[in-house]
Amino acid sequence: MSGFSTDQVFKSREELMEWVRNTGRSLGYAIVTKRSKAKNGYVSKVVLMCDRGGVYKSDKDSSRETGTRKINCPFEMVGKFSKKNGSWTLKVKPGEHNHPPGEYMEGHPILKRLTPNEHQLVAELTGKCVFPKDILGVMKERDELSSAW
Ligand SMILES: [Zn+2]
Q1: For position 146, what pLDDT does the model report?
Q2: 11 C-alpha to ligand 1 centroid (Å)
Q3: Which of 12, 25, 79, 116 is the most buried (most CB within 10 A)?
Q4: Residues 71 and 127 in one domain
């Protein structure tokens, strides 16, 4: 289960997005808008995706600046406006996250000290569903000279 499944009805798109943000935060996933569809001047449908969705571009738009690592996560949700009910509903599409939740790594002080190569290692291990605490354990072993651990 994704944890995002809900029968909740939202009065507005803002309310829906707020719920998605809060739920994402508590689950450890960052959800972003993939695209939205406007009809007659107002948005009737919005597709949401995991911020790890899409394909990572390894060229000069380095992920180092934003800290975003795109690993083609298939997780998507669709918010739809029902004109009849005047409300929004949210449906989770088939497709689970291909990575563990990231909340433990988010803002972790160790990340600021990592070299680009180490960042890459974390990204790779995260993509293989290794838990962040295990990643840090592996890196600790690699880094025996550091006394800061
Ligand atoms: Zn994901």
Answers
A1: 52
A2: 26
A3: 79
A4: no
